[in-house]
Amino acid sequence: MNDFQPMTVLREDAHADRPWLASLVGTNDTNTITLDLSKFTAGVHYEAGTPWQPRNTLKSGLALGKITASGLYAPYSGVSSEVQSVTVTGNPTGGTFTLTYSGQTTAAIPYDATALRVQDALEALSNINTGDVVVDGQPTGPYYVRFAGALAGTDAATMTASGAGLTGGTSPGVTIATPRAGGNTAGTDGTETFAGFLSDEVLFAPGSAKATGALLWFGEVYANQLPVSFDPADVTAVAPGVNIHYR
């Protein structure tokens, strides 16, 4: 029995303070790295200390990139593609709606269209090429329209919608929202290349310039549980050897 006790302890610790860490692909691998603390923001990347616990706490699961000039690690600075949601309201039982993007209006879209049908309608517009949008969601929505391709990382024009063709239900219509704005400019210091995730929380004293951490470069991750918004589909440059599987 005693021979197996160390393995039990290690397995219990594997997911401590890391709800974003999924079941592993084989095993997780980490490298020891040095973090440039001046690049991290309080309230976003770390929780400030208190009089009772004065050290700041970097959140585990932060996406990181490597600064070319210094070799230190900092928050990943790749672009963030815009996401707009489309929701059919009022419980219609029939009819169609349309979407308009930057002055161009789609053909009629069935009230209970699949996400692929909505994507096809948008890609048929003269100002949206194939691959410029990716649509997910369920019939009647919300549909989530992620701007990709030539529109990745841009401040995309906000779509408008018309539900005049919808029938049944109670005052049916279509609403548009922007859960995630785009237009972020990618870094140019090396951090625009994704290197992995901060594996464990890191405590550091206020005013510290550097800290040591562990970089997860191989494993499996719940992307929607990471502490700072991160969409794997936005990543265009990945450091050699990085192998992360997303759920």
Present the secondary structure layout:
Blueprint: H1 5-13, E1 29-36, E2 46-47, E3 56-58, E4 63-66, E5 73-75, E6 83-89, E7 94-101, E8 104-105, E9 109-110, H2 115-123, E10 133-137, E11 143-147, E12 160-162, E13 166-167, E14 173-180, E15 196-198, E16 202-204, E17 210-221, E18 243-246
Parallel strand pairs: 17-18
Antiparallel strand pairs: 1-17, 2-3, 3-16, 4-5, 4-15, 6-11, 6-14, 7-8, 7-9, 7-12, 7-13, 10-11, 15-17
List keywords for this structure.
247 residues, mainly beta, six-stranded mixed sheet, five-stranded antiparallel sheet, 18 strands
Describe the structure.
This protein has 247 residues and is mainly β. It contains two helices and 18 strands. It has helices spanning 5-13, 115-123; strands spanning 29-36, 46-47, 56-58, 63-66, 73-75, 83-89, 94-101, 104-105, 109-110, 133-137, 143-147, 160-162, 166-167, 173-180, 196-198, 202-204, 210-221, 243-246. Strands 1, 4, 5, 15, 17 and 18 form a six-stranded mixed beta sheet that branches. Strands 7, 8, 9, 12 and 13 form a five-stranded antiparallel beta sheet that branches. It has a four-stranded antiparallel beta sheet with strand order 10-11-6-14, with helices on one face. Strand 4 (63-66) and strand 5 form a beta hairpin. The longest helix has 9 residues, at 5-13. The radius of gyration is 22 Å and the shape is elongated. The relative contact order is 0.26. Mean pLDDT is 88; it is low at 1-15.
